[in-house]
Amino acid sequence: MTIRLLDDAVIGRIAAGEVIERPASIVKELVENSIDAGADSIEVRIENGGIDLIEVNDNGCGIRKDEVPVAFQRHATSKIRSFDDMQELVTLGFRGEALPSIAAVCDTVLETRSRDEEFGTRITLNDGQIVRQESIPRQPGTMITASKLFAQVPVRLKFLSAPTTEAAQVARIVTQYALSYPEIKFKYSSSGKTLLETTGDGSLTNAIVSVFGADSASNFLPLETYVSEDGKFAISGMVTSAAISRSTNKQISVFVNRRWTNMNRLVYAVELAYQGMLMTGRHPMAVINIQIDPELVDVNIHPSKNEVKFHDERYVFAALTKTVRATVAETSVPVSISTQGFAGFDMPKTEDHHYTEKPFIQPKTIIQSGPRYVQEDTKPVSFDEQEAVPKQAMQQLLPVLNVIGQYKTCYIIAEGPDSLYVIDQHAAHERVRFEQVMKEYKEHKCSSQPLLDPEILNLTPQQASYLTELIPTLQEVGFDISPFGEKDFAVRAIPAILIGRDWRQVFKDILDREGSKADDFIHRLMATVACHSAVRFGQKLNMDEMKELIRLLEKAEMPHTCPHGRPVMITIPEQRLLREFGRLG
Ligand code: ADP
Ligand code: MG
Question: Looking at the predicted structure, is the pLDDT value of residue 53 above 80?
């Protein structure tokens, strides 16, 4: 066969294949365009599951007459100019592929009027080619009608599901964006029936009521918003308490910069937070937004833009689980068990319900994903300026761990989201105790416990002079100690944390390192105290004790190392296991 260039129509259909898989993909692209256009009202209408007709109508900025044909050219976009713009991306679209792809596989009509033009434009395309363009009177905004999907691509048509299934997929997409953009009024109808209508008043709770019904909505709790120290990463939203659950995880929505994503790993991170709270096979509901500096995430993974890649996925993952966990764990015993299924779209609106309100937050330093047409006045700080901070924080966060058991009465074996964890129980407890005593010390509430019989210590002259220097510091942490003759000291009280422990050993350890600098003395003392009050290496622990220890470790600020700098845990990634067992290609 001779090598020749494909004609435009064929190229168009092939390219469209990546973006447009089914009616829901078209709806997704069009709704995203409407959001990018700054619309505050978006209406979606479909017929026959979207196969016969999809219509998306918005009141956004519209397209200027001369730009209308350009919008249908492949790789034509108003949203980025250079590849670097991706680093500051604030729009959902950027690839300039949706309109040409839609026009390649549907009969397409676009009506639009830019806010600063008097007349509107209507353009009609068949098989990707413009067949007519005319001026029309209309209000500002854009309406796109895509009909006869895949009529020219029978093989794709054959792979579509039943219209009811396709309609359900479309509903899902509209629902997702209705939840992600509570400030936009969404209306969705299928075959003449209005199935979803949101208030567009900016209240996430109201959006949840519209989508899931008032009953389910009453079980949603606002997340305690997590914001990273540098303000480049935040998690907010609402999740259900453990009082209700669903049989699927489809009602867990995790948005990234308010973009809908279809990523099992994020859903799993949410579910992990409920471990031990829901019965196996049951799932929570959640509407969560991860707001992240565009520099720290890549949204250009696939033409469908359904997935993103985080620069530090472990951190995102762990923070997500922890944030949800913190909210869910705090809520008391289940209030009511709701037995109804998906409360669906037809639920009556309940205006008189009052829920605690907690809309998605938009930290100041993070550019919100929203209309490009709105002037942004807050620029993200360059990541380099604070490089060290997030990196450190990222390494420190520990995901929620599920204890499997104990090995050799020395190690706790636990399961994390993507790794197996082998934890040195002594080191882990040391870390936990260390942070506790350090905190008590800093707050000056190291409580002191008097001894029934004062203890006399006989020291060498060298130790004695060293100890004399240390007396003020020792008093601060709860020792009552004073010289008693030449080289002897009387101990009348000890820190409460040492009760029942071998505090004499603590003393010996401290004095052995005599001569060290005074400024790290507190650290050493606390590490020694922590060490002597931690569970031993070789101590049998029951399941509850191990779980408690891990729970405390999860909360620790630096869970990965013990106060002496040794590792607390070794992680074995699942990938490594697969590789070692020859299960990776
Ligand atoms: P992208 O969204 O990646 O830029 P699209 O093919 O989806 O690419 O759209 C091409 C361009 O058409 C957009 O960049 C935008 O300028 C314009 N456009 C598309 N839909 C709308 C809309 N609903 N309102 C205003 N402008 C729109
Ligand atoms: Mg687009």
Answer: yes
Residue 181 inside a domain? The answer is: yes
Can you tell me the mean pLDDT for 551-565? 85
**What pLDDT is recorded for position 428?**
95
Q: Rounded to an integer, what distance in angstroms lies between the CA atom of residue 185 and that of residue 172?
A: 16
Listed residues 461, 488, 506: the one ending a domain: 506
Same domain flag for 482 and 512? no
pLDDT in tens, 198-209: 999 999 999 999
Q: Are 341 and 212 in contact (CB under 8 A)?
A: no
29 within ligand 1 shell (Cβ under 6 A): yes
Ligand 1 neighbourhood includes 61 CB (under 6 angstroms): yes
Q: Who wins on pLDDT, 448 or 345?
A: 448
Q: Average model confidence (pLDDT) for the chain?
A: 83
CA of 94 to the centre of ligand 2 (A): 7
How many structural domains are present in the chain? 4
Any atom of ligand 1 within 6 Å of the Cβ of 62: yes
Same domain for 129 and 23, yes or no, is yes
Phi/psi at 571 (5° precision): -110, 140
Same domain (yes/no): 384, 530: yes
pTM: 0.66
296 closest CA partner among 396, 367, 397, 400: 367
Shared domain check, 536 and 490: no
Q: Supply the range of the domain harboring residue 305.
A: 219-331
Q: Judge if 185 and 97 occupy the same domain.
A: yes
Strands (E), 257-296: 259-260, 286-292
